[in-house]
User: Fold these one by one.
Assistant:
Number 1:
Amino acid sequence: MHAFYSDHYVLPLPQGHRFPMAKYRMLRDRVAQELPQVQMLEAPRASDGELALAHHPAYIRQIADGSIQVLQPQAMREIGFPWSDAMVERSRRSAGATVAAVRAAMGGQGIAANMAGGTHHATADKGGGFCVFNDAAVAARVAQAEWGRAHGPHRKPLKVAVVDLDVHQGNGTAQIFQSDASVFTLSLHGEKNFPFRKEVSDLDVHLPDGCGDDAYMEALETALDQLERRFEPGLVIYLAGADPFEGDRLGRLKLTFDGLQARDRRVFDWAWQRRLPLAFAMAGGYGVQIEQTVQVQINTYTVAVEYARRWRAMPA
Ligand SMILES: [Zn+2]
């Protein structure tokens, strides 16, 4: 299984910044030690043209040249990272990683990963909540551009389901695809959690504070049933957020390690049963102990490699 990383572009953060940047490197180290089935590759840089499939050109330019700091200082504050060349490079690579994962999954591997990404709070013309570019949105549109015509006897556009199980609503993704019937946005998230002004996804499931494993799985089953009834995807992009974990600082839910792994298994299995290529990204995770966030993510990879093996064993 291919997994694309971008953590070596070190983003300079002020002392005491609350974003746990170290988790990405910790994840890569543990995957290297424990999961030799995963081939880790440097993420390519998303080009302006790729980014422009989901973002306004003026926004891309302002981020790229830093003029956003002057033109929209409030927008920069909402992103939550100080602007730097490294921030731009890393954001491009993180979007490029999901693009590369989608290409690998669609190109016959069935499953591939972005070891960062899931930056679902970025809208077409604005970042927010540690998100600069919306990697899932960019990758969905790239897949449609590259595979749309090859799919189906009637040259229908490739339909993409974004299954967003990060604890925060995928408001940016919802906004970008608001009037696009070819991408289905599903978001299961904490009702009382950020963002406080929510957008409308194709399917939103609002979970109460303290939601545990059983209630979560029930909600997920119902959501996947609905998705199935309303939409026929040819590709799944999965945001496997680690922040519904009970030990998360920001999550407000109470999922256990086992509950989260059952969640991942359900999504991978759902896609596998339908032979749908799936690309996944890590999205959020803010463990009180950051090692626990990384453990949730390792568990996701452990399930993912099982399903990647099934794809490999499938006759071409
Ligand atoms: Zn989150």
Number 2:
Amino acid sequence: MQFNTPRNIRFGRGSVEKLKNLVDGKTLIISGENVWKNVKELISLDSPVVYVKRRRWKEPSEDDVKFLAQEIISHSPSTIVAVGGGSVIDSAKLAWIFYEYPDIQWEDIYSKISKLRRNTKFIAVETTSGTGTGVSAAAVVTDEKGKKRGVVSLELIPDVAIYDSNLVMGMPENVVIYSGMDALGHATEAYTTNVDNIIGDTLALKAVELIYFNIEDSVKGDENAREKVHHGNMLAGMAFANSRLHLPHAMAHALGGRYKIEHGKMVGMALPYVLRLGEKCCERFASLARMFGKGASQAIWELQDRLGFPHRLRIKEEDIPLLVEEIINDRLLKYYPCKVSKDEISKVLYAIREGDLDEI
Ligand SMILES: [Fe+2]
């Protein structure tokens, strides 16, 4: 067994100010304009700095990544700093691969990534509380067929991660909810995979506790609660980097790609249904109930009710066989802890279509 994580993690209020001590040589900062405006006032960098800013970042396509890679290559930095949510950091991670290997093909990236860090080190400053990508080994991209693909490699774990809770205080309510549901998915899935990693499990359980018991107050604007959710997101990211994810994320890849639904919203929607399926077959799921005082599926369903989070998605009936194929072939399925059949996945899809947890 092993456990991999950034070699240095800075966290807590004001921790982004340490950035000036962490960069070397020519530094390229990749961020959103508004986010960077907030961060710029907190730090003064002595190194030569160039910026790649966008007014709005979206979950990246292969073309978006290649375009960003060209910008990175034209600046040839020795430190890349990605400041933002999952879309920014994932875009930067994937473009970094092309900076290190300009001739690499997407199929190579999807199968195996060679050693990075020949040209630059990579620092992630995560400014939402959901993806955990600042500490994780993953990045998500939409391929040319419109399918979301997870790229996973230990090489993609940033060298340094910064989780400054001051940076998440201004998140809009829907971002707090959707990214929180993504993080709750990371934590519960990492705990229930078939990867028996004691460090990952410990972090995952603490993450479930921090996110589940604080997200409602965080949504209401309570700063301490928001900081706890941010820490929960960080721990969940470290957990799933090592213990992996399973069915809710596989479903989010297929459904999110087809119906253009944000990642966190789709993970959150799938989560209680998959937990209900798992509770029927696997002790790992049932043991989460000790923390919630009831089944995890029921507890998270009720939490989502209180947050006004949707339970139902209009899945077209004719899409279901194809979706089942995509989900069963997703690489994450091998980490699901029990045997899962096409019929069971289809049942979950029909239940989401009806918005009825008891159909599982
Ligand atoms: Fe996720």
